[in-house]
Specification:
single chain; alpha/beta; six-stranded antiparallel beta sheet; 14 helices; 36% helix
Length: 473
């Protein structure tokens, strides 16, 4: 089958893509920016990529007409606190318009469980999108999932941060809300199982794992799998705003995502039936099994995708292409270079920077800068990186965003998403037997210049020692 995969560079899309290819399907990946599709050369050679922004006028977009089916994996919850529902509705309407005139027979939409009488703004938006898609010129199959647990998923990473950092927790009462988590592996099975299955046309199905548990049970279950004990005490008063700040400061989540998550955590998210599981003959994994499988992926460096690589997890909400040309005028720079003997080994050092590897010098200072950034609303260092030695354009790298990662030209270009009174770039390049390291800052007014000169003494020994250590092999 020829399949249109929207949201192909999202958390679910990146997991679904290799499965569809393994099944022998022809896949067309719809993304806003082709350069941000984080796949290797082998996968790239097997797919076709089209650039589509579903928030823009459909008249200016184009998709192949001879597609057989499509996956709708577009969500905007992490991009806004106030108007994400309007964006999701507009994207769905534009999607319907674009599919008119195509041969598409089936659209599969991954939504959220919406069985509670009172729905959060997030879940109301998912239900509204479902209603919009039902008006399209195709057969719709809706899969409604609760919390998805897998390596790199937002839910897993938040639970991981809370449990690993806080053995004793004072939590708001929403941790007693019931939910039905599902393993990412099971979600992919359901998504592929309904493809082309006419018995699922025009229907919506709840999907979930075998466990109906509270968020408190999830935190205890994580600790059990990891082999330690944690203590959780609930308090009756903790406003949604305080809860959001609590998640934001303790975990790697963005504030916008924290607000929307807290809003949804007050609602029970429990499946009402398991019809689809019976229809497809699937066995789902327990919550603790899902946690265990996630860590096996992490330990083997097999994490395919992470929610933290989403543009919405940082400060840039625009096209990365805008920043890829490093300005030459009106900027302040710190340039350094050192001779090197083994270019390939040094290149591997560059490609491992950040995350668990750290920044090759003064890691405690980088962590302190990340802490300060978190205090003023930035991402801090908690995002880390998805893979220890692979980087793609668009990836999050601590409080940087990867703009260019080209091993052939031996160049890595990062753009700062930390809160600063200006714009900052950090570039590593190997040429003519030397490693070049350039920090560029375009100040915003007087405060920007004062900021640069206030941190200049730290640059002298941090950047100086960093380049020396990167060059060591």
């Amino acid at each position: 089958m020829k399949i249109l995969l929207t949201g192909a560079n999202g958390y679910i899309g990146m997991r679904l893509l290799p499965k569809l290819l393994d099944m022998g399907h022809e896949v067309i990946c719809a993304v806003r920016d082709e350069k941000r599709l984080s796949v290797d050369a082998k996968v790239r050679s097997q797919i076709k990529v089209v650039e589509i922004d579903f928030l823009e006028d459909p008249a200016n977009q184009n998709i192949p007409k001879n597609i057989d089916a499509a996956y709708y994996l577009i969500h905007s919850m992490t991009s806004s606190v106030s108007d994400f529902d309007e964006k999701e509705a507009q994207a769905a309407k534009n999607f319907n318009t674009l599919l008119k005139g195509t041969q598409c027979k089936q659209v599969i939409y991954l939504s959220g469980i919406v069985n509670d009488k009172e729905l959060s703004k997030h879940l109301s938006s998912r239900k509204n999108v479902e209603e919009i898609l039902y008006k399209g010129d195709f057969e719709l199959t809706v899969l409604r999932a609760g919390i998805i647990v897998g390596s790199g998923s937002s839910s897993f990473e938040i639970i991981r941060d809370l449990c690993e950092k806080l053995p004793v927790m004072i939590t708001p009462k929403w941790v007693l809300t019931k939910t039905q988590p599902i393993a990412i592996r099971d979600v992919i099975q359901f998504l592929t199982g309904v493809l082309g299955n006419q018995d699922t046309y025009g229907q919506s199905f709840d999907i979930g794992g075998p466990d109906v548990i509270t968020y408190k049970d999830m935190l205890h279950g994580y600790a059990k799998v990891r082999g330690f004990k944690n203590w959780i005490f609930t308090v009756p008063v903790m406003t949604p705003k305080l809860s959001s700040y609590w998640l934001y400061f303790v975990t790697s989540t963005s504030y916008k995502l924290a607000v929307n998550l807290v809003d949804s955590m007050k609602m029970e998210v429990v499946a009402e039936d398991n019809r689809l599981q019976q229809m497809l003959g699937l066995e789902t994994h327990s919550y603790e099994e899902a946690i265990d499988m996630a860590f096996k992926k992490i330990e083997q460096n097999l994490v395919i995708s992470s929610w933290k690589d989403s543009i919405a997890s940082g400060q840039i909400q625009e096209d990365l292409e805008k920043y890829i040309q490093v300005p030459k005028y009106g900027v302040l720079q710190d340039k350094k270079s050192v001779p090197i003997k083994d270019e390939q080994a040094v290149l591997e050092n560059i490609w491992r920077i950040g995350g668990e590897t750290g920044w090759y010098y003064g890691n405690w200072l980088w962590k302190f800068r990340g802490f300060l950034d978190k205090l003023v609303g930035g991402p801090g260092l908690r995002r880390g990186r998805t893979h220890p030695d692979r980087i793609f354009p668009g990836d999050a790298l601590d409080f940087w965003r990867v703009l260019l990662a080209d091993k052939k030209s031996k160049r890595l270009l990062l753009f700062a998403e930390m809160k600063t009174p200006g714009e900052a770039w950090l570039e590593f390049k190997i040429a003519d037997g030397k490693l070049y390291q350039t920090a560029t800052f375009r100040p915003r007014g007087l405060w920007g210049r004062l900021y640069w000169y206030s941190v200049l003494p730290f640059h002298l020994f941090i950047f100086g020692n960093m380049i020396k250590n990167i060059a060591k092999v």
